Amino acid sequence: MTAPAMASHDVAVLVNGTERRARVIPRMLLADLLREEWGLTGTHLGCEHGACGTCTVLLDGEPTRSCLVFAVQADGCRVDTVEGLAGNGGELHPLQAAFRARHALQCGFCTPGILMTLAAFLDRHRSPSETEVREALSGNLCRCTGYQHIVQAALDVAAATREGRAST
Amino acid sequence: MKFVGDRHLRKEDPRLLTGRGRYVADIARPGMLHAVLLRSPHAHARIHRVDATRARAHPGVVDVVTFADLGGAGRPLPIVPPHPSLRGRNFAPLAGDRARYVGEPVAAVVAESRYAAEDARELLRVEYEPVPSAQTLARGAPAVHDDIADNLAGRVVLACGDVDAALRAAPRVATLHLRVGRGGGQPMETRGLVAEWDPALGQLTVWASSQVPHQIRQFVAELLDLAPHQIRVIAPDVGGAFGAKLIVYPEDVLIPFLARRLARPVRWIEDRLEHMVAATQEREQEHEVTVGFDDAGRLLALRDRFLHDTGAYTPRGLVVPLLTASMLTGPYRIAAVEASVESRYTHRVPVTPYRGAGQPQAVFVIERVLDLVARETGIDRARVRLANLVRAEEMPWDTGMPNYRGSGHVVLDSGDLPSVLRRALDRAGYDALVAEAGAARAQGRLRGVGVACYVELTGVGPFESARVRVDAAGRITAWSGVTTQGQSLETTLAQVAADELGVTPDDVTVIAGDTGGVEHGTGSFASRAAVVGGNAIALAARDVREKARRLAAAALGCAETDLEQAGAAFADRGRPERRVTFAELAHLAGAATAGLGVEPGLESTRVFQPQDMTYASGAHVALVEVDPLSARVRILGYWICHDSGRLINPLVVEGQLQGAVALGIGSALLEEIVYDDAGQVLAGSYVDYLLPTATDVPTMVIDHLETPSPLNPLGLKGVGESGTLPVCAVLASAIEDALGPGGGRVSRMPLGPARLLDLLPPPVVK
C-alpha cells in the first residue's frame, strides 16, 4: 500500500447522541473505529464477513453491519450502539429488561447486535407475529440460546408497548 | 435452601446487556502490539524456507517469528489424557519442517496495528513442497506422521459379554452402515489472547478466551520454562466455547512467547476464516453395526466396528472415540456388546471434543438400531425403546462397558428412564402425533414423528476447587476453577453459595476462570462445571459459615446453639440487640485468631473430587415435514423431557437445553466441514457452513424430572451438552418416518437437502 492511498480522513459521527471526531485511514472499518479508537467495545465482531450480524449497529437508524462499512462512510451520520440503549440513569431499555427476564442471552457476545436489530424492528412493527420476529432475527446468529427466549423477549416488549399505548 | 431451585435472574446480564462485558478482544494494554498468523495453505507440505525479509521491512512491523525462533518453546504441546493404546502426536506453537493440515500455523507477524500485520503477512514468502495428503480413513493413505504405520492413532476394543455367542443365538440379526460428518463448536466469539510480560516482576499475564486457563498456565510454564506462580491466566468474559476452546492450542503458547520475547503486550484475535481451519472439530466416524434381537424387540447383542477421523494431531488423545465406544449402549440393557474403534490420522484439522464429545455419534448409532428393530419387528418405535430401557428399580445400573477414563464401568448412578420417555411422549401427544403424521402421508405429504432417548456422562473429575472469602468490608467472593462462557455460572454458583452462607445470590460475587483465584483448577467441559464446581463451592461456603458461627459465638459471648442468623449477621437469640456482622467477623478473623481456635481469614478453600461420573438422561420427540421439491426439513414440533438431577436454576437449564438442541439441529441438517481430495476446506465461511438461524430452530416444550444424583452432596447432574446428544437421532427417526416405506433409509448425518433428495420416495401420481 503506497502512502497516498493511506492518506487519512477526518470523520465526525454522532455516536449515541454525542459528536465524536477521528482521523482515520480510508480502509478502517466502522467497527474498528468504534471499538479501537473510541473504546466502544460493546459492538462485537463475530465473522467479519457480514454473515453473523454480531456487529450490527444503527447507521442513521438502519441496522447495519459495522464490519462491512468503512469508517469514512459514517462521516456525518448518526450511529447508535448498544452503549446508548439504556437510559442516562442506567435503567435498562425495555428490550434489555425483557432479555434479562426471559434469559434471552447466555454468553452475551451476539447480544448487542441482536438488541440493535430488534430495537429497530420493534420501533417499526408494533404487533409482530412470532414468524415475523423470527424473520427479523434470522440475520443474526446466536450459538447459545436456540433463539426461543429471544423471540419471547421481543414479543413481550411488543405486547407491553401495545398495552402501554392502549392505557394512555 | 432458598435459592437453589429458583429461576433466579442472571447476575451477569446487566453487564452483558449494556455493552460492558469484557471479552478478550476488548482488552487493550498500553503499548500493545498485534499478532497475525500465517497458516499453511497445503494439507501436507514440507517447509523448506520462510523468507521474511520484505515482511520485516514493512512499516509498523516489529517482529516475524518462525519455528526456528522458538528455541526451547519449539516442541510439541503435551497430550492429555494419556492412554496405553495411543500413538499420540501433537502440534508445536508453530510448524517446523512439515505442515499437516490447511490452517496449521507457520509464522507469526507482530506489528503496531492489525492492519499493518495483515499487510506484512502478504509479504512472507514460504517455500513449500506440497506432498500427497491423507483425506480418507482407508488404509494406504499417505502417512501423516512418518513413524506411524497405517495412520493408526490407536485401536481400542471395549466389550462386555460374549458378543459372538449372543449374535449366534439371537433369533434375528441385522446390520447397519452409518456415517457422521465433521462439524465444529463455532462460538460467536472466536478464539483470542492478550499476553503481557512484566520483566521487573518476572510475571506473565495472559487473557485467554479459553475453557481451561489452568491448563494453559501449566503448558505455558512447561514450554516457556517458567514457574507456574510466574503466570496468571484469566479467561475474561468468554463468548461461547462449546469445545472449540477446550484444548491448549499452539497460539495459547505462542502469544505469551511473543509477549515475553518483545517485552510488550501482544494481542491476537482469531478471525472467522481462521477459525474454520484452525479451531478443532469433531464427529467424523464410520460405523459397521451388527445387532441381534428377538421378536419382542429386545436387544441381545451389539457389535460396532468403527473408524474415527482424529485429524493431524491428538491433543486430546483418544477421548472422543472412547466416549463413543463406552457410551454405545446408552440407556438400554444389552448383555453382550463389542465396540471396537480405530482412530486414524488424516491431514485435516485436529479432532477434539465439542458439545457432546463422541456421544452424539453413539446415540445416533444405538437409536438407528432401535428404529431398525422396530421396523423389523413391526413394534412401535417408542414401545421398542420402553422394552429395552433400564428400569428405575435397576439403578444403579452397571452397563458392563468400561468407561472412557478406564476407571471402571459405565455405571448409570440414578434416574428413571422409562418415566422420562413416557413424559416426553405424553407432552408430545405421541400416539395422536403418529396418527396425524400417518394421515398426512396418506395425502401425499412427507410428515413424520421421531423419538430418541439418551444418557449423558456428566460431572467429570478429577476435581474442582473453590475459595470463598468474606473480607473485612463484608464482601463475599467465591472463586472457582471452572470457567464460564455462557452457562450462567456467575449466577448458579452464587445461588449455591448463598444457600450455604445464609445470604442472597446478590451478596456473592463469583469469579471463575482466573488462575489467580484458586491455585488448582480443571475448567469447563464434559457438562462438569455446575456439578463439580458447584459442590466445591458448597463445601467451601459451608466451612465459611461454620467458621463465622464460631467467631460469632466468641464475639457475642454465647453458645453457637444460641446464635440466630439474619442475612450477613448473627445475633444472640437471648439478647437479639447484640449482633455481629460478617464484616465484623472477617475483621476479627484477620487479627489474632489462635485463641479462638481458627486459622486467620474468614475464608476456606476446598476441593470436590467426585468418585465417579453422574449420568443425566432424557428423551426427545420431534415432528417434521419434508418438502418434496426442495428436500428442506421443517421441524414442526419438539418436545423434551430431561433429568439432570437436582436443578440449581430451571431457567438456566432450559436455556442450556434449547441452545444444545439448536446446535444439534445444525449438526443434523446444516453444518458440515467438507474437504476436497487435496484437503482444502470447502465450507470455510458462514456463507457455506450454515449455522441454524431463528427460522430453523423450533419452539421447544421442556419437562423436567429431578432424580438427585447420589454421587455428590447437592445431588446435581450436568446438562450443558445433553440437549445436543439425541438431535441427529431424533431427526433421522422423524425424517425416515416422513419418507414412509417408499423412501430411503437415513444412514448419514448431516442430512442436508442434497443428500435427502436421494432418499425421497417416488412422487405420488394422482
Helices and strands, with pairings:
The complex is a heterodimer of chains A (168) and B (766).
Chain A: E1 9-15, E2 18-24, H1 30-37, E3 56-59, E4 62-65, E5 78-80, H2 94-102, H3 111-124, H4 130-137, H5 148-167
Parallel strand pairs in A: 1-5
Antiparallel strand pairs in A: 1-2, 3-4, 3-5
Chain B: H1 13-17, E1 33-39, E2 45-51, H2 53-57, E3 61-66, E4 98-99, E5 105-111, H3 114-121, E6 125-130, E7 152-160, H4 163-169, E8 172-180, E9 192-198, E10 203-208, H5 213-224, E11 231-234, H6 250-262, E12 266-269, H7 272-278, E13 285-293, E14 299-311, H8 319-326, E15 336-345, H9 359-377, H10 381-388, E16 397-402, E17 409-412, H11 417-428, H12 430-442, E18 446-458, E19 464-470, E20 476-480, H13 489-501, E21 508-512, H14 529-556, E22 563-565, E23 569-572, E24 575-581, H15 582-589, E25 602-608, E26 614-626, E27 633-643, H16 650-670, E28 700-704, H17 727-739, E29 748-749, H18 753-757
Parallel strand pairs in B: 1-12, 8-29, 10-11, 14-15, 20-21, 27-28
Antiparallel strand pairs in B: 1-5, 2-4, 2-6, 3-5, 7-15, 8-13, 9-10, 9-12, 13-14, 16-17, 18-26, 19-20, 19-25, 22-23, 23-24, 26-27
Helix pairs in contact in B: 5-6, 8-9, 9-10, 9-17, 13-14, 14-15, 16-17
What does this structure look like?
- The complex is a heterodimer of chains A (168) and B (766).
- With 168 residues, chain A is an alpha+beta fold.
- Chain A has 2 domains: 4-84, Roll (Ubiquitin-like (UB roll)); 94-167, DNA polymerase, domain 1 (Orthogonal Bundle).
- Chain A is built from 5 helices and 5 strands.
- Chain A has helices at 30-37, 94-102, 111-124, 130-137, 148-167; strands spanning 9-15, 18-24, 56-59, 62-65, 78-80.
- Chain A has a 5-stranded mixed beta sheet with strand order 2-1-5-3-4, with helices on both faces.
- The N and C termini of chain A lie far apart (60 Å).
- The model of chain A has no long low-confidence stretch (mean pLDDT 94).
- Chain B has a 7-stranded mixed beta sheet, with helices on both faces. A 6-stranded mixed beta sheet of chain B has the order 7-15-14-13-8-29, sandwiched between helices. A 4-stranded mixed beta sheet of chain B has the order 18-26-27-28, sandwiched between helices.
- In chain B, α9 packs across α10 (381-388).
- The longest helix of chain B has 28 residues, at 529-556.
- Chain B is globular, with a radius of gyration of 27 Å.
- The N and C termini of chain B lie far apart (65 Å).
- The mean pLDDT of chain B is 97.
- The interface between A and B is large, with 60 and 56 residues.
